[in-house]
Automatic annotation (TrEMBL):
Name the record gives this protein: 3-methyl-2-oxobutanoate hydroxymethyltransferase
Cofactor: Mg(2+)
Its EC number(s): 2.1.2.11
Entry's localization field: Cytoplasm
Annotated catalysed reactions: (6R)-5,10-methylene-5,6,7,8-tetrahydrofolate + 3-methyl-2-oxobutanoate + H2O = 2-dehydropantoate + (6S)-5,6,7,8-tetrahydrofolate
Native species: Bordetella trematum
Parts forming coiled coils: none
Chain residue ranges for the region called Disordered: 1-22
Pathway it works in: Cofactor biosynthesis; (R)-pantothenate biosynthesis; (R)-pantoate from 3-methyl-2-oxobutanoate: step 1/2
GO BP term, example: methylation
Positions that bind 3-methyl-2-oxobutanoate: 62-63, 105, 134
MF (Gene Ontology): 3-methyl-2-oxobutanoate hydroxymethyltransferase activity; magnesium ion binding; methyltransferase activity
Length: 287
């Protein structure tokens, strides 16, 4: 077996030159109309494979609570657990040449108190290797985003279906379907962009709405998951796109493993299809 550290000293066949992704590079991609490709990973090996496949951003999502720990929500995931997985992913990315930008989720409860407490949580994740942090929710989060950005923390916000508050949303359902909730989502998105968020994940939002939000925010880049093809980029949970889920797979997911010869080929197919705007296919994967 080859560890990511050993692989670092071996040539990575066919990966091409490493393209280092920074917030500035994301802006350039946006201006050039190049889609941003994000994928979750929770350990060194899969993160290294994602880097080799040309993924732009690796998200250490608190979805690890569900796909790795077997919990029924993301709520029990702790900051220490997130830092542990972030450090593993950081080692895998470094071994693969360090191309993708590493984004880590602030787990439930780690940013809901004082701004100082949230800053301490960001510090722990960034010391573990995160280059950007993600937090869920709109409205109350905008002043927090501004506070963190002013202190040098790049922030990705997350609106629409926010898994940490799935109980309050009455389950995994599409958000922003009616006019009032669509306008609220639009307002929260603009406030977060104004506060300095670099990215905005939109989860389970109608395609027309996420396209409208994307067009309203030229310097905050939308990353969709179940939000149609009009966003600046796409993200999927790795286990879902590999067809490795125990439960029912959401409609917005495509199984990229079905026609691939291995994990890296599946990741490469995902990168290719997002870049060529073949995934998501709105007739199949959107609402
Ligand atoms: O935790 C996670 O994996 C996420 C994605 C669903 C965007 O937040």
């Amino acid at each position: 077996m080859t560890s990511p550290q050993q692989a670092a000293s071996a040539p990575y066949g066919g990966a091409g030159p490493v393209r280092k992704i920074t917030p500035r590079r994301l802006q350039e991609m946006r201006q050039a109309g190049e889609k941003i490709v994000m994928l979750t990973a929770y350990d060194a090996t899969f993160a290294g494979l994602a880097a080799q496949a040309g993924v732009d951003m690796v998200l250490v999502g608190d979805s690890l609570g569900m796909v790795s720990q077997g919990r029924d929500s993301t709520v029990p995931v702790t900051l220490d657990e997130m830092a542990y997985h972030t450090a593993s992913v950081a080692r895998g990315l470094a071994a693969a040449g360090g191309g993708p930008l590493l984004l880590a989720d602030l787990p439930f409860g780690s940013y809901h108190g004082s701004h100082e407490e949230a800053m301490r949580s960001c510090t722990q994740l960034m010391q573990a290797g995160a280059q950007m942090v993600k937090l869920e929710g709109g409205g109350w989060t905008a002043p927090l985003v501004r506070y963190l950005v002013e202190r040098g923390v790049p922030v990705c916000a997350h609106l629409g279906l926010t898994p940490q508050t799935v109980a309050a949303l009455s389950g995994y359902r599409v958000q922003g379907r009616d006019e009032a909730s669509a306008e609220l989502l639009m307002r929260h998105s603009c406030e977060l962009a104004e506060a300095g968020a670099t990215l905005l994940v939109l989860e389970m939002v109608p395609a027309a709405l996420s396209t409208r939000i994307t067009q309203a925010m030229p310097s905050c880049h939308t990353i969709g998951i179940g939000a149609g093809a009009g966003t600046a980029g796409q993200v999927l949970v790795m286990h879902d796109m590999l067809g490795a889920s125990l439960g029912k797979t959401p409609r917005f997911v495509k199984n990229f493993m079905a026609e691939a010869g291995g994990v890296r080929a599946a990741f490469e197919a995902y990168v290719r299809e997002v870049r060529e705007q073949r995934f998501p296919d709105e007739a199949v994967h959107a609402w």
